[in-house]
Every structure is written in structure tokens, then in C-alpha cells.
Amino acid sequence: MIALAISTELMCPLAPKIPSKTEFRCLVRNVYYEARGESLEGQVAVAKVTLNRLNTHAPTICRVVYQPHQFSWTMKPITKGIDKQAWAIAERASLIAYNSDGFDATYYHNTSVRPKWGFTKITQIGNHIFYRP
Questions:
Q1: Within 10 A of 8 (CB to CB), how many other CB atoms are there?
Q2: pLDDT > 90? residue 53
Q3: Is residue 6 part of a domain?
Q4: C-alpha angle 21/17/88, rounded to 5°?
Q5: CB < 8 Å & 24+ apart, contacts of 60-65
Q6: What's the rounded Cα separation, in Å, for the pair 130 and 109?
Q7: Residue-range definition of the domain harbouring residue 65
Q8: Cα dihedral angle (118, 119, 122, 125), rounded to 10 degrees?
Q9: Is 122 domain-assigned?
Q10: Cα(109)–Cα(126) distance, integer angstroms
Q11: Taking CA atoms, which of 37, 45, 79, 108 is between 20 and 30 Å from 120?
Q12: Domain with 62 in it: what CATH number?
């Protein structure tokens, strides 16, 4: 089980933590395209991995998301938009992740692939397995 506090209310204040609308949109899009169909907990974990990569992998959320070969959806053209309900769920997961500590995964993969990583497995949530170096 993931060590993130998921409650029915958003934890505030959020404004000081969110760098810009553009950066937040990058995070929400990454959560949607990487974890749509997963539970809220799974989406929060994907958002947290994205945030955990800040500074060590890239200086901004958008640079983390669009870093080459890191997130599969960025390597193919997107032809379908995000509907309002899916956006709301991904946005909520992103907001929760912004306000959560204690989950230090920086990598994950879908259960259908078998990368040869030497990382420490933290947990599996839905169809994703999460790791830290």
C-alpha cells in the first residue's frame, strides 16, 4: 500500500507549491496519459514519481515529463483530448501528490514490461510497479 495520504478533501494551501498553470498542466497530462484507468491511488503515485524527479532529472515539471524516453505517451502523437471527468480525476491526483510526502519512488513501469533495472521495488499499485534507486 502506498504511503500517501489520500483524503476526500484537497489539502491546502496549494497555490504556493504550484509553479505555473503550464507546469501543472504538464503534470495533469502525464497522470492522465500514464495512469488513466488506474485507481486514484495509482494516479497519485504516478504524479508523485513525476514530482520526485524534479531537480534530479530536470528543473521543471514539463522538462521531467518531456525528457526523452521517460514517459511513453510523449513519444507518440496524441490524437485524443482529455474529457472533463478524466481531467478532473487526474487533476485531483496531481493536487494530492503535491501535498504528500513519504513516497520516494522515482521510477515505475507497467506490469506488462520487464525492464532490467537494479532498483529497489517499493510497491505495486494496479498495473504499475514503483521503484527507487
A1: 4
A2: yes
A3: no
A4: 50
A5: 60/19, 60/23, 61/19, 61/23, 61/24, 61/26, 61/27, 62/22, 62/23, 62/26, 64/26, 65/26, 65/27, 65/29, 65/30
A6: 7
A7: 21-101
A8: -80
A9: no
A10: 11
A11: 37
A12: 1.10.10.2520
Q: Which one-letter amino acid corresponds to residue 53?
A: R
pLDDT in tens, 55-71: 888 999 999 999 999 99
Q: Is residue 5 part of a domain?
A: no
70-121: per-residue pLDDT in tens?
999 999 878 778 888 888 888 888 888 888 888 999 999 999 999 998 999 9
- The tally of domains found in the chain comes to 1
Q: Which amino acid is at 112?
A: S
How long a stretch of residues is the chain?
133
Output the pTM of the full model: 0.84
Tell me how far the alpha carbon of residue 21 is from its chain's centroid: 16
Does residue 32 register a pLDDT over 80?
yes
